[in-house]
């Protein structure tokens, strides 16, 4: 089961858990109210998993690839890790399915506070278009993830501030509606 919590303000190693003391856990329902969708799948059988096949059909995820983030597997590793950790948004949903290893997705809540979502093998997350977020490995320094897209992939990240994009405005409207 995925675990999420509010982060401390420390600027030390981004790969550390950064839990508040005392810990302030975040539930799946709280994530859902931010538009974040979580699923648990069978990563050992992702190539033949009927649940993944059904999700891809239902959500129209027509494009997929697999990325391994590790210093021995990813070209320009250090540069990529820094880029992934810069706060940004996308104009499309970001869908990631962890096939092996682990890492953290950080998202902003409605009050602009960071929530850290610990992801491990079998976890699938969908971050809505327009949500400010970032990604980092955890202290294990390894993750293998499936990236899914509707149509052709668009890799463009828009670093904060990016509030004038229609995707951000639509996301803010979604948050306002969820708050009512």
Automatic annotation (TrEMBL):
Cofactor: Ni(2+); Fe(2+)
Subcellular location per the Swiss-Prot or TrEMBL entry: Cell membrane; Nucleus
InterPro entries hit by this protein: ARD, ARD_euk, RmlC-like_jellyroll, RmlC_Cupin_sf
Gene Ontology MF term list: acireductone dioxygenase [iron(II)-requiring] activity; metal ion binding
Keywords: Amino-acid biosynthesis, Cytoplasm, Dioxygenase, Iron, Metal-binding, Methionine biosynthesis, Nickel, Nucleus, Oxidoreductase
Pfam families linked to this entry: ARD
GO biological process: L-methionine salvage from methylthioadenosine
EC number: 1.13.11.54
Record SUPFAM superfamilies: RmlC-like cupins
Enzyme class: oxidoreductase
Main location: membrane
Membrane topology according to the record: Peripheral membrane protein
One GO CC annotation: nucleus
The reaction(s) this protein catalyses: 1,2-dihydroxy-5-(methylsulfanyl)pent-1-en-3-one + O2 = 4-methylsulfanyl-2-oxobutanoate + formate + 2 H(+)
Protein name: acireductone dioxygenase (Fe(2+)-requiring)
Recorded name of the encoding gene: Adi1
């Amino acid at each position: 089961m995925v675990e999420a919590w509010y982060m401390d303000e420390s600027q030390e190693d981004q790969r550390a858990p950064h839990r508040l003391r005392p810990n302030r856990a975040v539930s799946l329902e709280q994530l859902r109210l931010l538009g974040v969708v979580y699923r648990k799948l069978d990563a050992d059988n992702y190539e033949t998993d009927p649940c993944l096949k059904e999700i891809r059909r239902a959500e129209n995820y027509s494009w997929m690839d697999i990325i391994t983030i590790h210093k021995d597997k990813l070209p320009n590793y250090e540069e990529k890790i820094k880029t992934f950790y810069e706060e940004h948004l996308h104009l499309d949903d970001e869908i990631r399915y962890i096939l092996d290893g682990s890492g953290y997705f950080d998202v902003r809540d409605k009050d602009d506070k960071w929530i850290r979502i610990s992801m491990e093998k079998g976890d699938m997350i969908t971050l809505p278009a327009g949500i400010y977020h970032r990604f980092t490995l955890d202290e294990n320094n390894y993750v293998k993830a499936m990236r899914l897209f509707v149509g052709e992939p668009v890799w463009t990240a828009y670093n904060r501030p990016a509030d004038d994009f229609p995707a951000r405005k639509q996301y803010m409207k979604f948050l306002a509606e969820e708050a009512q």
